Amino acid sequence: MLADDDLGKLREDFHDPLPEKYYQAFANIDGDPNQELMVVENEKQEVIGTFQMSFIPYLTYQGGIRAQIEAVRIRKDVRGQGLGEKMFRWAIQRAQERKAHLLQLTTDKKRPDAFRFYENLGFKATHEGMKLHFDPLVSLASDS
After folding, report:
1. Contact between 30 and 22 (Cβ < 8 Å)
2. Is residue 45 packed enough to be buried (19+ CB in 10 Å), middle (13-18) or exposed (0-12)?
3. Is the pLDDT of residue 114 over 70?
């Protein structure tokens, strides 16, 4: 599902068999108590939804915890059936259980439908996010 959209096709490396780097990433997430990778299955035990939630401790808000959701995906054939809302209602409850003082996410500006979906759930665009991407090939070349 990560590679099953216009943006994902550009950044993911989906092959059969799946490249080892994805198994290593899963092991890293699974071994970190501040990471939760959630998977939703249908009655046939097929994966139909997923997201990752990170719990980030920090000094502000009196040593508060910030929950962050990333990599939200719903399988194409089950979109529009309320699964995304159910996943987010569960995520909101989970963040509250972990005593997070806020739940945040980012969404690509090229995904206006996702933006509206999150607004309908009560999320507000309160900050302008910025990113600095690194090219791993450039990093490796400069290390030698």
Report:
1. no
2. exposed
3. yes
- In whole angstroms, give the CA distance from residue 9 to residue 44: 26
Give yes or no for residue 134 having a pLDDT over 80: yes
Q: Is the pLDDT of residue 103 over 90?
A: yes
What CA–CA distance (Å, rounded) separates 37 from 29? 7
Query: Across the chain, what does the average pLDDT equal?
Result: 87
pTM for the structure as a whole: 0.79
CATH topology of domain 34-124: Aminopeptidase (3.40.630)
pLDDT digits (tens, 9 = 90+) for 116-126: 999 999 999 99
**Residue type (1 letter), 59:** L
* Segments making up each domain of the chain, as ranges: 34-124
Provide the token pair at 47. 């994966």
SS (H, E, C) the chain: CCCCCHHHHHHCCCCCCCCHHHHHHHHHHHCCCCEEEEEEECCCCCEEEEEEEEEEECCHHHHCEEEEEEEEEECHHHCCCCHHHHHHHHHHHHHHHCCCCEEEECCCCCCHHHHHHHHHCCCCCCCCCCCCCCCHHHHHHHHC
CB distance 114 to 121 below 8 Å: no
